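Hi Q.,

Before the meeting this afternoon, I wanted you to have the S-adenosylmethionine prediction in hand. No need to reply - just skim if you have a minute. The sequence and ligand are here:
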Amino acid sequence: MQLPEPLLEKLDDIRGFDKEAFTKAHEAAAVTSIRLNPAKSTNAFGNSEQVPWCSEGRYLPERPVFTTDPLYHAGAYYVQEASSMFLSHVIQQLIPERSNLHVLDLCAAPGGKSTLIASLLGKDSLLISNEVIRSRASILEENITRWGYMNTWVTSNDPKDFGKLKGYFDVIVVDAPCSGSGLFRKDERALDEWSESNVQLCAQRQQRILADVWPALKEGGILIYATCSYSQQEDEEILDWLGDDFKVTSLSVELKEEWGVIKTVSKKHEFKGYRFFPHKVQGEGFFIAAVRKNSDEPELKTPRFKSGHDSKVYEQCKYLLQSDDWLCLPGKEGYMAINNKHEQDLHLLQQHVYLRKTGLQLGTPVKNEWLPAHEIALSMDKSQTLPVVDVNKEQALKFLKKEDAGIDGLEKGWYLVSYAGLGLGWIKALGNRVNNYLPKNWRIRMEITDADWA
Ligand code: SAM
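Predicted structure with the ligand bound:
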């Protein structure tokens, strides 16, 4: 791989950089890693090596075809680059108390950081996972649904739209669009597209994004900023720019030396950041830093509203969920459940941003029965007493392809299709046949061979 010389020259004075070792590391393949979903336990990766800074992270010796693994479709894990899992360590160190928080993941698609954050928050906290590009927002929504948390909502807005939610968020994560040099091993396009002028453009865009969203962070709130670029213009210099234009304090986290993570300090304000080099860690290039906001924002007016909770419908569908701390509200299609602490948030957010996904879709009452939404099958909140049909890998993959999975002998009714104890979707047994309720756009499209069934 021919690395851009102007990039290598600029990195020369950075702590931890070693041109020869860095270049050599780029001759090796990218590392494959996954992060387990603590709400959906599986022992499928029991022997895999743990990512040092993330208790749920696992390295895989080779890259499997994830599409043919039903556990992937069940949301048992997320395929995520190991260095970026360091966000887990940053959050755990800087935010030990994680209940009752409003958290924004501003640049969220496809959902790696959001699923990580969701796993760390208490049930009564609310995570807004935002992606401005509409096509990417649908992938994000799918990944968030698969992860199964009722308190992760998806929006699709420009950062400046959040500026109107003054002082609303306790934590904002900006995993900024960047020049992508940290991903050269994973994505050859990043190498083709890299240029000094693009680094400059990205740095300007990063400043614009941060300035636009800044009012939404409350006084004392924490901004976590990350990129997958090695360039100081997008990393340390952005921290210095924050120090120049806003009232902030730099925050630091503890490191273990054997991790190989490099602590860096910005030139002007001496703000701390953390760098990941592929010759130092088992992972790709990454930068992360955190600051606390010291200036206040005028208080946000919360709207008056009448609760939309429908207690009659709640009675009809409460069998679907295991707890009772939720409200039943009319949703996009049928009804949805939200945590009963979040109704005011719903009304407030509705006024300012486009909500693509809120809470958990429950489904629709049809005649004398309830048509359950697909989301319930993937939700960690679903009742443990729903009728279940356990399937093997072949049946699971056939179900996910919307082919005949050979499930028969069932009494009439709705069943959750479960693989290794994790929900995949719904079927309805009609006596003489079984209907597959997996939404069409969720089905596996790739060819699956006999070897994949094993
Ligand atoms: N956080 C994601 C994850 O962990 O899976 C990766 C985010 S990626 C580094 C940056 C994201 O920012 C992309 O999804 C991109 O579409 C989005 N983006 C691009 N331009 C943007 C802008 N002007 N404002 C906000 N987000 C933008």
